[in-house]
Amino acid sequence: MEPRRYKKPVTKKPIIKEPVSKKASFIKSIILLVGIVILASFLIWTQFAPKPVEEAIEVIEAKVEQVKKIETPVNINSEKEEPTNPEGKVTYAEPKKTPPKEENPVIVIEDRVEERDSEAILASAIPKVYTIHTETQQGSGFLFNDKGDIITNAHVVAGYDTVTVVNSTGQEFVGHVIGISDTVDVALIRVETIAGKEPMQMDLLQAVEGTSVIAIGSPGNKANTATMGKVTGTGRDFNEKYTYTDLYEFDAIISAGSSGGPLLDALTEKVIGINSVILTDNPALGYSIPIYSVNQLLNSWVENPKIVDDSVNPRIEDAYFDKELLSIFIEGYATLYTYAQNEVNFNYLIGYLLPDSSIYQLESQTIAALLDQEKSFAVNKFTIEDVKIEENRAFVTATTESVMTQPDKEPINLAERAVYEIIIDQYGDYMIQSVTKTDITPVVVPEEEEEDKEDKEATQEDAS
Hints:
alpha+beta, Thrombin, subunit H, Nuclear Transport Factor 2, Chain: A, 16 strands, flat
């Protein structure tokens, strides 16, 4: 039997692990720790750190907003500026509260706080309102500036370069048409002889519906006629021979001959419009061209007047004294005198007293002396007693019965007789040159004194 064969065993080499050095182990630990710290830091940063892009956008938006605030000017009046229009047409639809910017407008700073009656307002306006005559037309006009320029309607003077202008005292002047429109019913007349006279005051703001108004003119050639009413609408348009845009509609009655006359705000007493249109099917309403809408056009004529051939002028009449006109003049002065007293405002009398005269200075001081006295005056009766006319002057005698009141005091009855000396100035207007006043207040005897007097008289009769 053959012996069993066995494989020779393979001898395995033993695996010998080499020892790891301490330095390498430390490095690995540091690397692991750094990695953990970096990972943790990243997680924390993503949660709490600001987002760079969004933060940058917010900063940019904040800066843009700041720039806007700096560059945007403060505009108190938010309404749009009226576009320039050489013919004075208004193109906006909504009511405009602020006027277009104009050069050298006639504006009053001080406004009244209450309305006066039409008689007082008419008395103030009379010297500045005129009647316009041509060979075929008669209309009205009013003083626009201190150059002697008078506003009227174009249809009143159409076809004429020279017209006759008449003031409230009947003085006639030669007027030259220095500007007239073919599309807007407005014209401007220059009367050189009244240059320097104080004009009416223009209101360059748009009036609103409900505004109390007074229309002044010369209907039927009757000068110094005034009617009161209210603005019943704005923005009215008509297309006839002329284009009428954004007119004021009002219910103060006007009629033929009133064309070109002023429409006054009854509160401020400024001119707000030019009376221009009456509808034949509804004569109870009148229509007026807003003064602000044509102010630029009028000023362009003032600066560049039309050349007029003045070789042929109408024959004119000099101013004259008339008893009725003199009475109206003094009645107007008396009406305004009460307002001057109650409001301590001498300006009411300036249009009636001759400048640089002694009465001008005296009345100025008299009115000023009422300041802080809290006196109030009311006229009960005013009577024109006599009118005398001489060659170069006139005398009007009038009496005034009034009541003066003061707080916590009994009313005092007053009576005065005044003689007014009146002349005609260089503008053809009546002016008061002097006033002589006499106190005619009845002497009131107290009841006790009256009884004592009666007893004394009775005793004397018994003794006799």
